[in-house]
Amino acid sequence: MTVYAPLELNRLSSRAEFEALVERAKARWDALWNGDHTVVTVGVGSSSIAKGALDVLAACQQAAAGQPIIVRQVGVDGADWMEVQVQVKRPGAPTVYYGNVEPHEIPDLLAGRLQSKAVGVDGDVAYEGIPPLKEHPFFKYQHRIVLRDVGVIDPESIEDALARGAYSAYLKVLFDLTPEETIAEVTAANLRGRGGAGFPAGVKWESGRKARATPKFVVCNSHEGEPNVYKDRRIHEGDPHRILEGILIACIAVGAERGYNYIGGEYPLAIKRFRKAVQDAERLGLIGKNVLGSGKDVEFRVRTGGGAYICGEGSALMYSIMGVRGQPRTKPPRSVEEGIWKRPTVANNTETLSNIRDIINNGGAWYASIGTEKSAGTKLMTVQGKLKTMGLVEVPMGITLRTLIEEVWGGMRDGYKFKGIQTGGVSAGPLKEEHLDRPVDFDSLTDLGGMLGSGGFVVFDDTVCAVDFARYLTAFNRFESCSKCVPCSRGNPALVEILDRIRFGRGSLSDLALIERTSKHIIELSLCGLGQVAPMPLLGMMKMYPEEFRAHIVDGVCPTGTCPIGSRQTAATTAAAAD
Amino acid sequence: MTQHVSPTANRKEIDLDEVREIMSHFKPRDYQEAQELILSALQEINERFGWVSLEAAEIVAEHLGTTANRIYGLLTFYADFRTEPRGNHFMLLCHGMSCYVAGSSRLVQELADRYGIRDGETTADGELTVQVVNGCLGVCDRAPIVKLDDKYYGNLTVESFNEAIQRAIAAGKSGESAK
């Protein structure tokens, strides 16, 4: 159908031409939703493809042939529990969201005979007995800024993105604001780094702007190598232009000649969609020489990683971009003085940069009013474990863990009992039931040995053994150690060895002291931030579940029967498998 | 049964003309950009053939003005690359935290017990190569999950895991790129 046909994309040479294109994109968007045709939208992302989203999409296209139906694809909106998700907008009715749709159900769904799978409708009021989607606990607590258009726009269509306001902040930064004013907004927003460290982005940009060496660069860290986080790849798959706009704004603000996005190689779909976004932006002249006639130049490069966790560390990431092994170096000099090719480089996390558009458009004060005083704004959070409504959510900082677990994520699945929640990925310790009323922000969990980190939580049930889990987390850090410095590359294997001794029933109480001592060495002497926190999960497990460690050592049993000491498996095969 | 496939056994040659064709798309404008493109080039080759051979590495090195040694340093550092060919079927076994708490250790164990392979290895009959993913495949609500050739298998038990492997092997060799 012609209503939703792509627009002609030519190089734009002025602000007026850009604004005219945005008007056309908005008209196209309005025509899509207000015509006398049905719009069928399928959420297609790496997680839903695993559940057959491409088959569902094909079934929709087949059913739509010759009918007044427009079929489109969007990124997945975070509600993993309702994948494959199909949205149906009929003329004169609100959009209805269907969950867990199978390809063979499409004819029934389009004929309106599958209302049992309708989860919610758009808007504030129920429609034909289907409640508003935003009242579902999974969506009720969310405040979507970064995710606003994820699951709404077609990630491969710059027209969709423009209709929803993409590059509006970039335009302001190019024409209306000075770099100082741009940075002042980011500083006023109190936007702290979303990669885990929580360093204020405004301060970083300011030092980048003040650095005197040239050329300068901006790097978006989209590596996300932790074993429990999938937020950044969802933004790439759902709204790549938002990330690109954030990077371009950063380039203009700090005076960088080139922006980079470093994406983990294990996310082919994220890379594909982001590259498409860059191509389209280049075609429109949003990247290149004399952008929209503003006299400003900015270049862009996409670089991909190769599956090394360490490349999430700033200096390692930059070495990886330069085509060598990603091994961190000692600091100072910091990256903002000496980064890529020894030039000043500002590195920010994907999620941090994805907030920039709204901060520039609505002002830093608006952003600072969301969340808590010291941790402003919203945070993307992911969860894993046996929960009912799992997925990626964007919630204001300061929400409690209990609200997240029991309401947003629906509580434990039937037959599973909550035991603890691992925080901060592989860099911090677990929390227990009695800590769940703590607010979640950058600072509130640290005194318990927990951490917000990049917002990945793992809920584990009482079939998981604390000693075995600690070994898993320590083994991860051992595997991912880059081998550059001795405390980390030798210390972590030593910890795994001690844990294995305990798991096999050959541990002694002195081993606990040995763990503490070895951990202290690793924490104090390791070169980079990853080594310095590598023993944290183990120490956290020992702090929260000392009785389980004692049971293995003193009583010679594994309370959950997970470890070789309490199971039928022979020691030799388990040791082999553990690697 | 536990046997590491030697680099010479079951070797599938990489079509070097195709490697040259892939490399012809990489047009660095200066020395720095050439350096930045090494990993991307290796990734494309690894994706296309499932591994990077010494001969392919030499072509990359020559095209981008570096040495095969340097390339090998990268291939052995980054976990995604392989320097040996894959078996007929390729499995990514997710061992992220979600899969761990849902019991992926049992699947790793089963691979060792029944198939005699560990992370990165290929079965003696050349049918199956496994890569244990330390990160996350991002399909956490179906944990534990594996990606076998192009298909995902979720909510696995040891039984359904074996069944998936047996069915894939019985169905024959996966697509020529063995993705």
How would you characterize this protein structure?
The complex is a heterodimer of chains A (579) and B (179). Helix content of chain A is 40%, strand content 12%. Chain A contains 24 helices and 14 strands. In chain A, helix 7 (168-175) packs parallel to helix 11, helix 10 (231-238) crosses helix 11 and helix 18 runs antiparallel to helix 22. The model of chain A is unreliable at 568-574 (pLDDT under 50). In chain B, 44% of the residues lie in helices and 10% in strands. Chain B has helices at residues 16-24, 31-49, 54-63, 68-77, 97-101, 104-115, 158-170; strands spanning 89-94, 128-133, 146-148, 151-153. The longest helix of chain B has 19 residues, at 31-49. Chain B is elongated. Chain B starts with 15 loop residues before the first helix and ends in a 9-residue tail after the last helix. The chains are: A alpha/beta (579), B alpha+beta (179). Chains A and B meet through helix 2, strand 8, strand 10, strand 14 and helix 18 of A and helix 2, helix 4, helix 5 and helix 6 of B.
How do the strands line up in the largest sheet of chain A?
2-1-3-4-5
Oligomer: heterodimer
Number of strands of chain B: 4
* Overall SS class of chain B: alpha+beta
CATH architectural designation of the largest domain in chain B: 3-Layer(aba) Sandwich
**Number of separate structural domains of chain B:** 2
Order of helices and strands of chain B: HHHHEHHEEEH
Number of helices of chain A: 24
Strand residue content of chain B: 5-15%
Mean pLDDT of chain B: 89
* Global Rg of chain A: 25 Å
- Low-confidence sequence ranges of chain A: 568-574
